[in-house]
Fold this sequence. Notes:
- The structure holds 3 protein chains of 3 kinds.
- By secondary structure, chain B is an all-alpha fold.
- Chain B has one domain: MetI-like fold (Orthogonal Bundle), CATH 1.10.3720.
- Chain B is built from 10 helices and no strands.
- Chain B has helices at about 5-40, 45-55, 60-70, 75-85, 90-115, 120-130, 135-160, 165-170, 180-190, 195-225.
- The longest helix of chain B is centred in the first third of the chain and has 34 residues, at about 5-40.
- Chain C folds into 3 domains: about 1-60; about 65-145 and about 255-295, D-Maltodextrin-Binding Protein, domain 2 (3-Layer(aba) Sandwich); about 150-250, D-Maltodextrin-Binding Protein, domain 2 (3-Layer(aba) Sandwich), CATH 3.40.190.
- Helices cover about 45% and strands about 20% of the residues of chain C.
- Chain C has helices at about 1-30, 40-60, 75-90, 105-110, 125-130, 170, 185-195, 200-205, 215-220, 235-240, 270-275, 280-290; strands at about 65-75, 95-100, 120, 140-145, 150-155, 175-180, 210, 230, 240-245, 255-260, 290-295.
- In chain C, helix 1 (about 1-30) packs antiparallel against helix 2 and helix 4 runs parallel beside helix 5 (about 125-130).
- The interface of A and B includes residues 75, 79, 81, 103 and 131 of A.
Amino acid sequence: MLELDFEFKRAEFSLSAKHTFDAPITGVLGASGSGKSTLLALIAGLLKPQQGSIKLNGELMCNCAAKIWLPPHKRHIGLVFQDGQLLPHLSVRKNLLYGYNNISASQRRFQLDAVVELLEIGNLLERRPGTLSGGEKQRVALGRAVLYSPELLLLDEPLSALDERLKQQILPFFLRIYSECKIPMVYVTHARSELDYLTAHYFYVQDGKLQPAE
Amino acid sequence: MILTEAEWQVLSLSAQVGICATLLCAIPGIFFGWLLARKDFFAKPALEAILFMPMVLPPTVPGYLLLVVFGSQGVAGQWLKENFGIELAFNWKGAVLAAAVIAFPLMVQAAKLSVQMIDRRLESTASTLGASPFKVWCSVTLPLMLPGILIGSIMVFSRSLGEFGATITFVGNIAGETRTLPLAIYSATHQIDGDAMALRLICICLALAFFSLFLNNLLTRRTEKWLGVRRA
Amino acid sequence: MHAAGATACGGCTKASFVSLYIYVYIGHGVAHPNGVAMSKIVKLRAGVGCLLLLLQLFIAGSVQAADVRVSAAASLTDVITELSRAYEKAHANVLIKTSFAGSSTLAKQIENGAPADIFISADKDWADYLVQRNLLNKSTRIDLLRNELVLIAPNGRVPSVTIAKDADLLAAFTGKLCTGDTASVPVGKYAKQALSYYGWWDGIQPRLVGTEDVRTALAFVERGECTLGIVYKTDALMSKKVSLVATFPAESHLPIVYPGGLTKSATAEARAFWQFLQSPVAAEVFVRYGFKFAQ
């Protein structure tokens, strides 16, 4: 469960949110530039709000008044970008295990083989990110984030760089991730159709405010 | 072409000075390149200007300043002598320092450019995967800087091979100690029958320059391929 | 080379300002009346006119008839400068342009086309070098001055050194000994002769610092970078920061002679100045600086 209560401002841009995300998959809808990516950056700890607090599963991620701030690498929140952001100098296998190697054995809830099978990327393991297609990159990025066993998975327009056919192919994987791995997700997009497939719970980002859908 | 003993001495001294200057420039160069590319702070424009000054000053100026500070009468020179027994005036270590100071901006620039080309979201992604800032630097930033650092190193080495003004002003032109290739050519052209030797040394210089540029190209392509960031 | 460049530059700057002014004035004048853009032909004419003006001034400015260019050994820097200024005061339209460096450097420059009217070397070898290559007029060549070789040390740090056959120079001081490059610079060659004469040459090698000219060696000793230096007596007298330790006796090295002469391109003014340098008036100044006359 993610509790948001903050205000963020940078130059002309501002974003305020005062809501709780408790659905398995929460959608966030908004036009380009509305601040959806900023919202995810704030949750992940890549940006700092001016005031307010963010709580995940009862644990305080940040509280401006009390000057509490947990840096991104301690928050245990996974983030998947639009273009995957695979580390180009590492193989797919090493990419997948990047987050996995940063957590202790007791924290690891998923194993490489299971995730690889789930996302059907077994034949890609020894390849380099530069040789992969868009769809393959996204699946690897997803697998990498899952293997980190995060408490929350943030997805920043993960499919917008792909064509319709690929989108239809990959969307089911997200549902699979939830049903098999039970990791809650926040899915940000500007395409309503993707959200309709995944969830009924979603919010809008509009005029600098996070608002629930009616 | 068989080299005479004197020529070998010049060549090996030049190589020694070049390699040491490159090593000396490496860590500070990478650090400042990264700092200028990633961080913003009040004194940044001033720092950048200072770091790049050796590039625009006539080399005799840094050479003279080095003499004043690191010479046997200089503040730093005396400190080094008292605490470490290191003397820089009139020996090859001083030549290394002179070459390093002059070539330093090249390393900073190469490192800065290579950091600027790294997508910051890669670093953000790494930190959202549990990597501490130090781990991010080691596992993401540094490997991706590698082609830039390699280019910078070869440029520093090449510049050191050709360094004349600061060297001759700071450590003089002493055979076997500080007479690197350019100084040897200069000396040869001042001797009555030195033109033949000067020509031979110039040929060596050309060969070295060609070889280092060739190597630069080769290594850069190999490294980029290894990193999977081959630019078209 | 320096002289011609400097004059040309001066001429150039003047020419560019004039041209720019003309260009702007013409352009402005033509464009102004109706506020109409200046016609292309007028612009072209103005541009060509300026270019011709520039060229003319450039060419005219490169050689001024009354320049005398002197290339002299570094040890003559101060005395020749003083003599040049005195001569210029007495001869209103003559400009003496001087270049001081190691004799080896100057000879090589002249060989490669550097313009000079008068060349004064600190040893015979470099004057012979230019005579052999027909660059120095043999009939005008004379030995102008004599000098002595001395050992110097920075003020306040004078080691006790005797110059004698059984003395051990190497043990008498710590640190480096500075002089001209012993292979090519005159003072270095004399120093090598003197050091060999006393049997110190082999041992001094690792502690020797060779420079491009005697003044650089002097500067290193002044700075205290070198504990000892071998320079000319005249240089030791010039400097307030060094002390004279000892003088090398004349038998320990070849006579220090300053041969000089006119080059092939020397003008009448240059000839006159060369004569002046051999006159009693000049002799008085040379002696004041510590030189001896070779005649």
